Hints:
The protein is mainly α and 171 residues long. The protein has helices spanning 2-22, 27-30, 40-57, 61-64, 67-70, 74-101, 112-115, 129-133, 137-140, 142-164, and strands spanning 116-118, 124-126.
Amino acid sequence: MKVKFVWWRLRDFWYEQVNSRWNPRQKWLTDKIPRTYCDKVELIPLLLYTCIIDFVEKEKALERIDWEGSFEGGAEFREKLVECYDWAKKGREEHQKRSDAARPEPLRDFSHEEMFIEGGDGFFEMISSEEHYGGPTEVVYAEHWRLEAEFEEIDSGWLRWTVENRSRLWT
């Protein structure tokens, strides 16, 4: 009786601790997790959108499942799933590129000594936005901030939708 218990414990330890570290069961997901530190505000969308992309591409959810016949509102769910997939695959990156392109360009390249002016008390102050960009911060960053707020709203909406509909993400 004791031998069976020991064998079972060894097999369980091998499967749970050793084998799963060398051969993870969700490799498609663990490959996306950065090897370096990553803030949770970046990690959570990365993981959720990776789940959506895997569900559509690897599990072939759009081809395999009869969404209209599966449940009431299945056709609408399929449409939302396609929209969410498109946002995760291309939309986020394109929107981020537009937002980055909307950042103001400096009037010229400033050296470190030109960017920071020593005050009388031994501390350094950065030059004003007018000197650096040619206008007040609120004006020169207005479009960038607008796009960032728009991105946050769209992204949060799709993340919320993914969590709310997680029970339907199976094939």
